[in-house]
Q: What sequence folds into this?
């Protein structure tokens, strides 16, 4: 049996037109734009959160370091001879290491 050269009417109705494809492309562009914006917003929010955590951690470390400096100053004032001996020993070690 030979097939007719006449296109089937149901096939023509389901074939997307250029206009339909253009609309779909525009919808995809809009969706991609929204997704890009959402991802950017999430990235900025996460960046702010990480920055805040880093600042909190830096403040904590700074406070601990200042506390240790205060402890060392008190120790040096209470034990000046010992502190001087420790400093001399450290200086000697650094000098020996620098020679090599």
A:
């Amino acid at each position: 049996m030979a097939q007719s050269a006449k296109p089937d009417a149901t096939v023509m109705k389901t074939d997307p037109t250029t206009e339909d494809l253009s609309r779909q492309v525009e919808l995809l562009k809009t969706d991609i734009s929204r997704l890009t914006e959402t991802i950017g917003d999430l990235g900025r929010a996460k960046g702010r959160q990480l920055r805040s955590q880093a600042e909190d951690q830096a403040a904590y470390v700074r406070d601990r370091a200042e506390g240790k400096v205060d402890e060392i100053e008190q120790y040096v004032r209470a034990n000046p001879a010992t502190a001087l001996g420790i400093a001399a020993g450290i200086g000697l070690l650094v000098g020996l290491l620098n020679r090599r």
Q: What stands out?
A: The chain has a mean pLDDT of 88.
